[in-house]
Amino acid sequence: MPVVESLICKETDGKLSFGNYILSTKSKVEDFGHEGDVYKVKTFKEITKLERNSAFVFESVPGSAVIEFETTPDLTTFDIYGFGDTQITIGLEEDTEYEVYIDDVSIGGMKTNLSGKLIFSVELSENKSKVIVKKR
Question: For the chain, what percent of residues have pLDDT higher than 70?
Answer without folding.
Answer: 99
